[in-house]
Amino acid sequence: MPSTHTSASRVVDACIVRGWNRESPTLSATFDIDRFMAGSGQVDLRDIPWDDVPKYPLTPAALRTLRYFLNTESATFYYLRALMGTKAAMVEPDMAPFLSAWNYEEEFHGRAFRRFVEAYGERVDEGYRGDMYLRRTNVERITDGVALGLSVVLPDAWPSIHMLWGAIAEHTTYNAYRQLITRTQHPVLAEICSRIMKQEAKHFAFYFQQARARLAESAMGRKLAQVLLPRIWTPVGDGMSPTEEAHHALRYLFDGAEGEVIPAIERKIGTLPGLEGFDIFTRYVERAGLKRAPAEWLAVPPGSTPAGGTTEVAPSDPTG
Ligand SMILES: [Fe+2]
Ligand SMILES: [Fe+2]
C-alpha cells in the first residue's frame, strides 16, 4: 500500500530492492530449515496436569521471575517486527520460514507460562501484552530506532548483530528455564520448562549458526559486535519489562555477577568469530551490582543438588 508508506519505510524498501540484486549468503547448507519446519509447532502441553500446579508452593521471587518470562516470551512478536525490517529477512530463503515458525513457537511459550501462572491462582490481565509494549523503557525505544537505522545503513553487516543478539537471547532463555527447574523444584513447571527448552535449543542453533557465518564474512559485523554491541546490549526481556524486573530475574536465576551460568553463556558466544573473551553479560550484571539470590527466594538451599541438574548448560549445537 504505497500511499501509507512513511518515508522511513520507503528507504527500507529501497535498500531491500538494492540488496536483492546482490548475492546473499545461503546458510541452509548448515541449518536444515526443512527439518526444522517439519518438527515445528506449539509446545505440546495436552497431558500437563494443570490441577496439580497449586499443590507445590512457589516463592514470591519464583512467581515474579515467571511473570518476567511470561512477558518476555509474549514480546517475541515485537522483536519479530524489528527483524522483519532487515534486508536479510526479506531476501534470504531460510529467514521467512524460520521467523514465522520461531514466532509461533515463542507465542506458545508465553501462553504456557500464562496458563501455569493462572493455574497457580494468579491473575494475568487480558491486556498485559499491550501494556508492556506501551510502557517499554525509553532505552528500548531508542535501541529500536538505532537498530532500524543501522539495518538501513548497513544492510549486509547489521544482520550479523541481529543474529548474535538472538543467539545470546536463546542461550539465556534455555539456561533460564534450566535454572527455573532447579530453583523451583516444581514438578509441573519442570515438565513444561523441559519441553520449551527443546525448542529454545533449536532456536539457539539457528541464530548461532547465522551469527557464525555472518561474522566470519563481515569485518564490519565483527567491528559492530566488538565496539557497538557492548554499548547498546541488554539481556533478553529488559526494556520490554522494567529493568528492575530483569535484574531480579538475573539474580534469581543466575546469581547475578556471582554465579556460574552467565560466564558459561559467554564462553559459548565467545567461540564466534571476533568474539574471543566475550564478556558483555558479566559487565552488565557487575555494573548493576547484581549479587547472589538470597536463600529465601529459592525452594532449595543453594549448594544442594536437587533433581533438575547443574547450572552448567550448553544447548546442543548441531553444527558441531
Ligand atoms: Fe521461548
Ligand atoms: Fe526461543
Architecture blueprint of SSEs:
Blueprint: H1 7-20, H2 33-39, H3 60-74, H4 76-83, H5 87-91, H6 95-120, H7 128-134, H8 138-153, H9 158-184, H10 187-217, H11 219-232, H12 243-254, H13 261-269, H14 280-287
Helix pairs in contact: 3-6, 3-12, 4-6, 6-10, 9-10, 9-11, 9-13, 10-11
Bound molecules: fe (ii) ion (2 copies).
Question: What tags apply to this protein structure?
Answer:
single chain; binds fe (ii) ion; 320 residues; Ribonucleotide Reductase, subunit A; disordered C terminus; 0% strand; 14 helices; mainly alpha
Plain-language structure description:
- The protein is an all-alpha fold and 320 residues long.
- It has a single domain (52-297), classed as Ribonucleotide Reductase, subunit A (Orthogonal Bundle), CATH 1.10.620.
- It has helices at residues 7-20, 33-39, 60-74, 76-83, 87-91, 95-120, 128-134, 138-153, 158-184, 187-217, 219-232, 243-254, 261-269, 280-287.
- Helix 6 (95-120) packs antiparallel against helix 10 (187-217), helix 9 packs across helix 11 and helix 9 (158-184) packs antiparallel against helix 13 (261-269).
- Residues 73, 106, 109, 173, 196, 200 line the site of one fe (ii) ion.
